[in-house]
Amino acid sequence: MASTSGSSLLHTGRRQDTGSAGASGQAGAGGGGVGGWIHVSDIRNPPDYGRIAEPEDIFGSLEVDGTGQFTDGTGNYQQSGTYRVVTRKGVLGLTDVLRSKVFEALKREEAKSKR
Known about the structure:
alpha+beta, single chain, disordered N terminus, three-stranded antiparallel sheet
């Protein structure tokens, strides 16, 4: 069977079976066993599946190795520097889990300041 580009569609399936199809055969979730960065962003303007959020929506990034584990056990977090609390798309958007974590951290800071 041939595609309109002239390449065989049967070979793509075989490459996927052997794991050599690359990122294009991984439905947007590819890393090819090399490692890379996971970008941590807010939810005010979620990107399309498999895409990276806008720089103004990214808090920072965590590094992972080829197996998907955080490097150095911590992920070597690096702050974005381009994150904006308010953009044309709205105000900071957090998931319920992150919102509760921020709330807990603020409570701890408030308790420290009362000492």
